[in-house]
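Section 5: illustrative case.
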């Protein structure tokens, strides 16, 4: 199926003129409005949060954008470009283990350390997404269809996976989408001295032997369904993730509700996330990690467009650490 989609991309990838939201409303066109011209996930506050869950969400509008999310001196980078019919996006660290992404099959030692040290999830992987408008983008009303393919390279184990996505949009108001991809989580503890965190945050250290039992490797499959409404200056998205561990067939689920209001040069976002899984959760009342089937998180975001090309934003809980992070985007 993926080979077939790749052939279609090559056959009809010649750039053609297409109408964008900035063409329709030039007096109200800023970089923030490009979010609403995405076929799906238009309420999501960043390109990375939208396009690496479903490659069909890559914005095909003409131009080049550079996005960075800054937290604790580190930057999560994303680059997106479009020709009018085809869009592409790359990132050094995609949306997994963020408010808007799926959870990975992370080992509990690393998860506890990340939480108590307030470190974002980082992976040694490269992700590339590309999308093509099949039909409908030139029309103001009617059905629009976009197809996407993503490529993930996991450097730690020299493994690559392909995934795909489909997005349908009616008159730029109602959208539905589906995406599916495989991924892997790898952590090598062999011969390393690591910190062992208890549920209350206290820690000790130990050194593991070179035995292969201390090489943690999980492969999993992710399915993503999204329904969205985009009307004038308001957007809403409901997204559902199902993550299946390919070793034992266990599943975890994530539901994300997000809404954004576009007001003049501002974009305000509010989201609620529900995760159903067996991993631990930090209970602020008990001040420790507990086992809880359902976990809930809230996201807040505010962004401001400086001119038509630059956007600065501030986010709370983007990395599910109750942290504050800064977003910067330049699009031209």
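Designed sequence:
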């Amino acid at each position: 199926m993926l080979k077939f989609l790749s052939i279609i991309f090559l056959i009809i990838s010649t750039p053609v003129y297409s109408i964008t939201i900035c063409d329709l409303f030039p007096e109200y066109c800023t970089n923030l409005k490009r979010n609403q011209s995405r076929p799906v996930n238009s309420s999501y506050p960043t390109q990375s949060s939208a396009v690496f869950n479903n490659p069909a969400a890559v914005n095909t509008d003409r131009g080049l954008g550079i996005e960075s999310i800054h937290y604790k001196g580190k930057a999560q980078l994303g680059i997106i470009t479009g020709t009018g019919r085809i869009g592409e996006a790359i990132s050094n660290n995609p949306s997994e283990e963020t408010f808007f992404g799926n959870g990975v099959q992370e080992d509990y030692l690393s998860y506890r350390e990340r939480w108590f040290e307030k470190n974002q999830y980082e992976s040694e992987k490269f992700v590339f997404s590309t999308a093509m408008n099949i039909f409908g983008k030139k029309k103001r009303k009617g059905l629009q269809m976009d197809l996407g393919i993503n490529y993930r390279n996991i450097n730690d184990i020299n493994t690559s996976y392909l995934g795909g996505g489909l997005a349908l949009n009616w008159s730029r108001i109602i959208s539905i989408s589906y995406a599916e991809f495989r991924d892997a989580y790898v952590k090598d503890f062999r011969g390393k001295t690591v910190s062992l965190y208890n549920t209350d945050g206290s820690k000790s250290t130990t050194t593991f032997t070179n035995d292969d039992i201390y090489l943690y490797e999980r492969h999993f499959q992710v399915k993503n369904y999204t329904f969205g409404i985009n009307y004038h200056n308001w957007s809403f998205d409901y997204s559902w993730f199902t993550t299946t561990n390919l070793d034992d067939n266990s599943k975890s689920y994530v539901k994300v509700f997000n809404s954004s209001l576009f007001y003049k040069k501002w974009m305000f976002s509010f989201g609620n996330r529900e995760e159903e899984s067996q991993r631990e959760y930090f209970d602020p009342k008990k001040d420790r990690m507990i086992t809880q089937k359902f976990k809930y998180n809230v996201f807040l975001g505010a962004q401001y467009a400086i001119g038509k090309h630059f956007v600065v934003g501030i986010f709370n809980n983007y990395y599910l650490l109750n942290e504050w992070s800064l977003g910067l985007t330049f699009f031209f």
